[in-house]
Amino acid sequence: MGIILDLCCKRRKRSYEIERNIFGLLNLGNTCFMNSSLQCILNSKKLIEKLINIHLLNDKNLKLSNEISILLNNVKKGEKSYNPKNIKAILAEVEEKYKYTEQNDANEFITIFLNQLLKELNGIFQNEYTTGKIPRNDLELQAFNKLENRFFLKNKSFLLNLFYGRLKREYLCQNGHLCSIKFNNFNTLILPHPEDSNELVDLLNLYQKDKLINDTIFCNECQKEMKYSIKTSIYSIPEYFILCLEKESIYSSSGLNYPKILDAKDFTNNNNDRYSLYSFIVYFGDRERGHYTAKCDKINNWYYISDNSYKIIDPKDLPKEINDRNAIILFYEKI
């Protein structure tokens, strides 16, 4: 199948501008969380390049992938409005709450959506995953390989490099001895509410701060159960880096400051990659009810998108519009 799709990709000859064309999504009743999420996810160039011709495989098992492929092709043909009812119905088979019309969280939707795509596309594209950074010692390598075998090697998909990164967690006893290392995968990071700073880089560093655990762990050095802390490190970052803020973060008067260009060296070790903001989700409302919208960089213009309506953001208003205190989910792409 991968060979067939690669040939399809080579025959396409379409432009980047067509791929990231603008379109609206109908609100099916409190589905702004889904619509804004889809707008940002489907503004990811490399994802579009792979998915646009998936429907040509005529594989009935690729329900969500086929529906996204149909959407992209309709947009390519000039359709400016799309009814996402089939996408919602497909995901309702995975997550029952999507059968109903209650408002849901956009960050949770993004995780469920990407995981379902990953499940469907396992094995469709071959030989498109690289391990990246290699562990530096035997203890780290052993923990790293557990995650590789459990997740990254089990799921053979181009989505891994695009959207899935790794977290390293070191378990340290109260005397500072390293007791254990574990690795976990992620496709979004949910960052903590800012304490003394409203800068995104500070939140990323706060996320990796040692956290004292109200429990004990056996320490080989101390030869007994000890209280411990966990140090989390962002070990590897995917090409599309999705950062979700706790809703509490947007209730402060100053909001969050996030850069247009994010330097990984400012919050990781041995990583000099840079990431550019290309989309983000805005949330208006309170803790119970609100409205999600999206702002996306498409065809050299930024657009404001609210369900089925959209407009170009005036260049003179751009500095203010892309530094929105109500931004809650940020999408960065590696440059």
Question: How would you portray this structure in words?
Answer:
It is a single chain. With 335 residues, the protein is α+β, with helices and mostly antiparallel strands. The protein folds into 2 domains: 2-108 and 287-334, no CATH class; 138-266, Cathepsin B, Chain A, CATH 3.90.70.10. The chain is 30% helix and 28% strand. The protein is built from 11 helices and 14 strands. The chain has helices spanning 2-12, 16-19, 32-41, 45-51, 63-76, 85-92, 106-120, 138-152, 159-163, 200-207, 318-321, and strands at 24-25, 81-82, 165-173, 178-186, 189-191, 211-219, 224-236, 240-245, 261-263, 274-285, 290-298, 301-306, 309-312, 327-334. Strands 5, 8, 9, 10, 11, 12, 13 and 14 form an 8-stranded mixed sheet that branches. A 4-stranded antiparallel sheet has the order 4-3-7-6. A two-stranded parallel ribbon has the order 1-2. Strand 10 and strand 11 form a beta hairpin. Helix 3 (32-41) packs across helix 7 and helix 5 (63-76) packs antiparallel against helix 6 (85-92). The longest helix has 15 residues, at 106-120. The radius of gyration is 21 Å and the shape is globular. The two termini are 30 Å apart. The relative contact order is 0.14. Residues 1-19 have low confidence and may be disordered.
